[in-house]
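Box 3.1 A note on notation
Throughout this textbook, protein chains are presented in two layers. The first layer is the amino acid sequence; the second is a token string describing backbone geometry. Keep the layers aligned when reading.
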Amino acid sequence: MRQLLFAFTMLLSASPQCFAEIRTSAVFGESMVLQRDKPIHVWGWTEPDRSVEVSIAGNRETVKSDRVGRFDVKLPALAAGGPHKLTIESGGESLTFGDVLVGEVWVCSGQSNMQWAVGQANDADLESLSANFPQLRLITVPQVGTQEAQQTFNGKWEACTPESVKQFSAVGYFFGRQLQQTLDVPVGLIDNSWGGSAAEAWVNRDVLKSSGQYEELLARWRETEATYDHDAETAKFKTRLDDWKETGKGARPQPPRNPLTGQHRPANLYNGVLRPIIGYTIRGVVWYQGETNAGRAYQYRDLFPTMIQNWRDEWGQDDFSFYWVQLADYLKEADGPTESSWAELREAQTMTMSKLPNTGEAVILNLGESSDIHPKNKQDVGKRLARWALAKDYGYAIEYQSPTYKAMTKKDGSIEVEFDHVGGGLDTFDVPALLGFTIAGADKKFVVADAKITGKSTIEVSAEGVTDPVAVRYAWADNPVCNVQSKEGLPMTPFRTDDWKGVTADAK
């Protein structure tokens, strides 16, 4: 008892000092990059109701911490440059971060195709050898799935070197490298991706509840949360493993994954890997996700823009840029017209551009691998995202958007389709014949169509036997055979002119 009382007394005496320590999220640290030309948001924790002064490059701002000790400071915007020191002072204590650069900051997020490292991409050895970019800074948020909002994480900023780049997001790196070399300013990349993650895991649970559109999804999770016993599942696994060791029959049992701490549970990643960086001043987000939600593609039409808006609302930084990668081609090539959940997911992604401002889609339908959901050509993916940022955020006069469906006109036995964003005009890749078009009459039976370019932005589509066509589709399959692009090499966005009920329409 005496030992317990002593320990308790020591804890009480130590508490004020521990609480007084200035703390911040790990997104603030040595060698970080701060966003240029925007007010710099700095936050952290100290004692309640204490004066806090934050300074950088001759600018100083003073605030008081609130009743739980949190402080929030907005420093004046700075031009690109550095290195600087950022100092936080409170109650005679100080916290200083050195080698701070000011430039462009982007979040790199999503699932495994964003997480996929430089060391796993094409020409990994060559890419790593040449990755000496001291003004390109990288930080990765560890994968923590939880319903409890996290304040910080175990991570630190590093300059891009042949060693540090190997484990960093390949898409993120190739995107950031293009920006840094083009803009010639420091660039900071924050990677918080998690392979296999579902979009709902990235959204504040209160937002999902209040929308009223995800009750079935949330109900399934409430059932899991009420009944899943990880200890019991682990015990079952150990019994199966012992049996396997004794008999040697079958495949080795795999340990259970805890869905309660995984990357599918609603709000788990919002709390675990997003909350610690929400509010850090950024230029925008690049995103590569959707495979996990393909079976609920119609739901994604609302879920994806809901997620983006949730991030923007809580970031408190207006409608920052948000660019994503459309799903690549994958699985067996389609021999003919087919229904496809992946095509419907791509459609949902494309729809998001018309629902939210400052959004954009990098089409990579020609970069996939039928047998690998993780295509290794991440270089071109990063470049296509960089086109969006360089054109929309930095004012470069380059083509950035793939040709997109605009309108259709019925003609005698054919349909003429018109497109936006055709650049120098429509073109084909590999062979002159246009591949990937199907056409249907009122019976909704699609057949492979003949197509020909009739103008800079128009294509005429027809098929023998379809005398009164009403609908055209292009690249409508998991892995379509298609080859239309702009003359600048940006592949045409998959589309359909009909709105007939899809295979994922009823999935919740």
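The chain has eleven helices and 23 strands. The radius of gyration is 26 Å.
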